[in-house]
Amino acid sequence: MSMEDALKIRDLAIQHNKYFEESIPLIASENVMSPLAREMLLTDLGSRYAEGLPGKRYYQGNQYVDQIEILTTDLGKKLFNTDYVDVRPISGTNANQAVVFALTNPGDLITTIPLASGAHISSAKFGTVGFRGLNPIPLPFDHEIMNVDVDLASRIIKLVKPKVALFGQSVFLFPTPLKELSDALQEADSFVWYDGAHVLGLIAGKRFQDPLREGAHVITGSTHKTLPGPQRGIILGNSKNEDMWEKVQRAVFPGVISNHHLNTMAALGITFAEHLEYGEAYADQVIRNAKRLAETMHSLGFKVLGEKVGFTKSHTILVDVREYGGGRKIAENLEKANIVLNMNLLPYDDQSKPRNPSGIRLGTQELTRIGMKESDMDHVAELIKKITIDKKNPEDVRNEVIEFKKNFRTVKYCFNDNFEAYKYIKLI
Question: CA 110, 111, 113: angle at the middle one, nearest 5?
Fold first, then answer.
């Protein structure tokens, strides 16, 4: 019986691979690794431990691990133009936990982006921030421009003087106005923390903003969204804050992690090396594709948020689909047609009802990774319209999706971009 269960798991994994091979992936928080990076996941590194920092381990047998970690860290420093990089966090939320423990104490005030305006759950009262016993104060958010209201936010920051000012979102359409808020943040003497999980690859590709040069003391992020690496986390520091950085590294270990998944660390190093080579071109095309998808969906009759400011300057677009049944219903209907995206709260939704939001969120980073360009976004928009507005049979549209996807089976913007690798690991 146990053998049958094992084979069933294997078969389900193969079915999953096949489903995504034949789907249009639009989840804004996902991507695919290059074949070379993916290979690292299958190495013996995945079975080993390495607590601490290179040269200061608590386990033997790390002589090669140390070299991999040093090289990965050095590549990260070069990619993000900073002397302070910690590649040990195993997720973006794990990186956030480390920063919270390093920079705050229970009872401290922290300013955040409102959850319904796109913030990550780790910044909420019921997330990492709340579990630390912090008091989050939401900053005013201008829904017309889908960004922080600078004037009102400046007043609040000066008034409450937060220990930490946290910026960054899961719906991250436009650069955060760090420069415009810098006077208020300096007057409040706040640590500026930028959660760049969604836009890390765009930052590294020099196509979004440069938070460390715009006032951020520390950046956290995950490494598998617009940075197309393994599911992992990272922390970047401003080189002017050595004392802060020592606290951050102690919070990482022994604070919130023990071993740090050495196979994915190696995959991250390869991703850094590839992004140094291809990242600018990739980030540029990701944003071009997102803007085109937003514009086309708008022209087809969809209510795309951020219209007054050009819809998006990142990989993400946000669409109000209330008149077609709401975010949950539309996401489920699209899934039946092999178009994969997620329902999402909109700024004017009741955030206490996240399972019934008005919107859907779409990201172009994975479609770009497999070679799609602006004209392909037009076709994607038409397929979404057939399900959402035209109420076509999802099964009929699914056949169109499968046929369309046959043209995009190769991972691009990597060292072996001619490798027939877009198969989500065909398990043998």
Answer: 135
| Within-domain flag for 19 | no
Let me know if residue 111 belongs to a domain.
Answer: yes
pLDDT above 50: residue 422: no
- Alpha carbon 260 to its chain centroid, in Å, reads 19
User: What's the number of domains the chain is made of?
Assistant: 1
Cα(323)–Cα(316) distance, integer angstroms:
21
pLDDT digits (tens, 9 = 90+) for 70-91: 999 999 999 999 999 999 999 9
Mean pLDDT (whole number) for 355-359? 90
Our CA dihedral for 331, 143, 202, 89, rounded to 10 degrees, sits at -80
Asked if residue 381 is part of any domain, the answer here is no
Residue 424 is predicted with a pLDDT of 42
Instruction: Give the pLDDT of residue 348.
Output: 86
Count CB-CB contacts under 10 A for residue 144. 12
Q: Output the DSSP codes for 145-211.
A: TTEE-HHHHHHHHHHH--SEEEE--SS--S---HHHHHHHHHHHT-EEEEE-TTTHHHHHTTSS--H
Does residue 402 surpass a pLDDT of 60?
yes
Find the CATH number of the domain harbouring 117: 3.40.640.10
* Cβ-Cβ contacts under 8 Å for 210 (sequence gap 6 or more): 203
Q: Residue 134: what pLDDT?
A: 81
- Tell me the CB-side half-sphere exposure of residue 203, using CA atoms within 13 A: 31
Does residue 240 register a pLDDT over 50?
yes
C-alpha closest to that of 404 among 26, 35, 21, 32 = 21
At what angle are helices 394-405 and 374-388 packed, to 10 degrees?
A: 170
Here the tokens at position 173 are: 């359409």
DSSP string, 274-332: HHHHHHHHHHHHHHHHHHHHHHHHHHTT-EETTGGGTS-SSSEEEEE-GGGT-HHHHHH
Q: What is the pTM of this model?
A: 0.94
Reported as a single tens digit per residue, the pLDDT across 121-153 is 666 766 677 678 888 889 999 999 999 999 999
Question: The domain containing residue 252 runs over which residues?
Answer: 38-271
Element (DSSP H or E) covering residue 395: helix 394-405
